[in-house]
Amino acid sequence: MNDTIKDLDAALADADAALAIQFCSKVLRKPLNSQYMMVEQRRKLLRELGVDADRLGAVDYTQKLVSTRIQGFCSMYQEFMKKTVDLKREMGFDTHRVRSGILVEVA
Predict the structure, then answer these.
(1) Residue 101 — pLDDT band, cuts 50, 70, 90?
(2) Which residues are within 8 A (CB) of 28 and not within 5 positions of it... i.e. 6 or more apart?
(3) HSE-up of 34 (CA within 13 Å, CB side)?
(4) pLDDT-derived band of residue 105, with 50, 70 and 90 as boundaries?
(5) For residues 106 and 94, is the Cβ–Cβ distance under 8 A?
(6) Calpha distance 77→71 (Å, rounded)
(7) How far apart are CA 18 and CA 26, in angstroms?
């Protein structure tokens, strides 16, 4: 489970960067894949948004990168949730209980 949490944390950082890239493009109207913005300007803008630009490396900030990073986070989150349910079962907790036709999650 520790490895899954570390992987989820890394995927979350990637998704955070991807959302910052989208924010720059859609809200600030400063697409980071622009040929008119120098690499250091891109990285500075990301750092100002709280993104670890070094983590992204020297990549082109394209829509494909954004999609890949978001999908990666979604996959890791689903894996984390599955392992959480499996861990609850192993520890002897019911993960779901039906009460009056309403599904209630319990820990």
Answers:
(1) low
(2) 45
(3) 17
(4) low
(5) yes
(6) 10
(7) 12
**Cα–Cα distance measured from residue 60 to residue 83, given in angstroms and rounded to the nearest whole number:** 34
- Other Cβ atoms closer than 10 A to 73: 20
Report the range of poorest mean pLDDT among 5-14, 19-28, 34-43.
34-43
In this structure, are residues 76 and 8 in contact, taking their beta carbons and an 8 Å threshold? yes
Highest average pLDDT, of 35-39, 65-69, 101-105, comes from: 65-69
3-state DSSP of 11-66: HHHHHHHHHHHHHHHHCCCCCCCCCCCCHHHHHHHHHHCCCCHHHHCCCCCCHHHH
